[in-house]
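Office hours follow-up: a student asked to see two folded examples consecutively, so here they are.
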Amino acid sequence: MDTAFAALTDEQREIRRTLREVLAARCGPDRLRAVALTPAGHDPELWTRLGERLGLPGLALPEEYGGVGCGLPELALACEETGRALLPSPLLATTVLAAPLITALGSSAQRAELLPRLADASLTCALVIPGGSLATALGLIGDSGSDSGGAWAAGGGRAGGVQARPAPGGGWLLYGEAGQVLDGHSAGLLLVAAHAGGFPHGRTLLFLVRAEAPGLTRARLTALDQTRPQGRVQLRDCPAALLGDDDGPAVARALSSTGARAAALLAAESSGTAAYALERTVAHVREREQFGRPIGSFQAVRHRLADLHVQVRAARSAARYAAWDPAGAGTVALAQCLETARTATAEAVQLHGGIGFTWEHETHLYFKRAAGDELLLGPVHGLRERAAREAGLFASETPETPETPEASAFGAAR
């Protein structure tokens, strides 16, 4: 028996087995490259199949809205498998980021209309955060008190960001743009964070924008990780509907809660990426021979892989714990898993030798995924700094410099 999964329930094991079986058949390296180059950046047919057969998009959504009704641990387990396969899909943008915000903030009518369509994979959604500040908006990096006002939505107090103003006759109009939006070029629905009310009394609110809305233009961007497509979104007096109520503090709380969940789920995905990179590397060093013996028999290689094995196991444990307590452990687990994925994929490239550096080999796909994920919700040192501040490990005030006699005399003279 695989002792690494001894704590899983029968239902969780079945989710893992079925998903791995489907992805193994549909996510080979050649297939990944072909799908990543399509206009959507993912396989809509596979996404629909995952929704119909496994209920993956609605795995953690309530049953009353067409979801499966499972919890975050089950969704995290699924993310492990998608990380192993580098699945190009709307899972992160739609299921991890957008669906929890609609659930938390949407009106009863909005939830009833949108969540069932998200759950059955008939609708995809993208969270539009201006300024490339997704990690800041979700409360994962930055000082605890500096990002709650949502200044990032207005371009940090300068020209830019996305602005919202009431439309004549009701509704809202949005003006601005945002880049590096996950699935922003292809999603059927956009969830846009915009600044409303002017700077003296402004607040950040979330708005729903349909793909066919007038004034909306979108384009796909070139990204480091082609399996994680991103787009630029431009809004020119684009009509939008307010998500829920005009309640800035509620939006800030919902973004923070979603950020903790997203950190735990991306940690799980990164741990899956690292685990697969290690498995493929171990298989390679067992087969590749040098000086008449497998290179895996050399002590230096064995030591490197042994150290990496410990890191991967520790990262997976951290990710699974974070799935049970995202608010308490999500940020720290994400930092650990991102760092482990970066190390594991870099070692995979090195230990595969010359073939690992070629475009034809799959190792560079995993290396780019690890690097791209850190750019998405990192960096690692920022995540750890934020966690340390929240844990009270930094002094709240800068210690005062002891006053010297010269300083006292200068003060008296003034």
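And the second, which I mentioned at the end of office hours:
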Amino acid sequence: MRQALLGIVSKSTSPLKAIMALALAMTFVCADVASSLAARQAAIVVDAKTGKVLYSADANGRRYPASLTKMMTLYLTFEAMAKGKIGKNSPVVFSAHASAEAPTKLGVKPGGSVTVETAILSIVTKSANDSATALGEMLGGDEATFARMMTAKARQLGMNGTVFRNANGLPDPGQFTTARDMATLGIALREHFPQYYGYFSQRSFLYGRQRINGHNRLLGRIKGVDGIKTGYTRASGFNLVSSVSDGNRRLVAVVMGGTSGGSRDNQMASLINTYLPRASTRGGGDLVAKADSNNPIKALAKVLLPKHDAPTPDEKPVAVAEDDTSVADDAAVAQGDSEDEDTAQAEAPKLVAPAKKVKTVIVAAPKVATAQVVAAYAEPTPAVDPVNTASVPSGWAIQVASSPKQSEAQAFLDKTTKQAPKVLADAAGFTVAFDKDGVTYYRARFGGFGSKDAAWKACTALKKKKIECYAVQQ
């Protein structure tokens, strides 16, 4: 490409013509980049009355959920409300941990509280990270336990390509989902909790004397859109789950990895306008079977919840606190990993890299049949190698063990982490399934090393502690 540009410039007879030629050439380059980015986005459109998939683009590709994570936080909140465990006026106390979350947030001080309803409204409009964490701690005792409850519920709903690590969606390399799973969750929220679903159509609410406006700009713009949730981090790009109802037709659509809020919204609007007329006017009944459990600990025991599932990116995502003042234009934004789209820097071009081939055998989550969204109480899938996407880049890892039992491989990861905490401080453990002579084995690896030298250096340090290992490229 550089040689082609130089050729164009060298053939120009004057500096002005050279500049004009170069500008024209760069226009084509930018168009190619934009096309490449669009090809790596994920999207799905599901007929919410029949479960038929009307459109799909990399719907099973692994993505960071960003604030779409809060949909599951609200699912478990609605479930607790429906069972009478909490009410809309129950106090939600903010711990020091919840209060310290990065913006966007309500800004409640440690020890302060709001009602459950205020917490819900702050999540669906402002995408308040502190409220999501506070609700998670209220329902789970602590956020880590609540995250396991979220993953357990995801498995029960048939969301086999999803793992949650926190309640709000702030960057965590081990937290991932798929567009298909988010569509499943969007459908489940409406079907299972119609009495609370109206919260998602809230465009603003009063918090004290402050009017807080929502991030979902399709509400009121596209006829029939009634929610559900937006999301953004630099690693995820711009995400959106939308529900739309028009007469006897109903859709749930998902767009993930948008390069800006505006382009993502336009893509969603195009999908709705194209596929809503093709949706069925017949059908009905729950597409996603309820998976109730009065004992959350028992529910956790039924679901395989690995502590580490994916290697970290080359640069570990870090939440960066920002000013959460809204602006009118997606182009006028500030840098950081805030979950506020209105103050987020769209840096998607820096995040997309060609996926490298994965040499190990990947145990993929089962695909969902076209005419059915999910089957209830689906069997969980084991931890697997990451499917390399724009949001989960590949890199170097070190292998420390291999076992025919995943639990043993995971136990070795935990033991190694305790033996060499400093060496593995910036690494993430995960297991890799592979077949040999008809038997499935699990490799125990630590990922997140940005280069071969970094992996070898870590391995050398482990060997000094009498821990055998070797470096491998993902």
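Two things to take away from it. The mean pLDDT is 74. The chain has three domains: 2-37, 41-301, 353-473.
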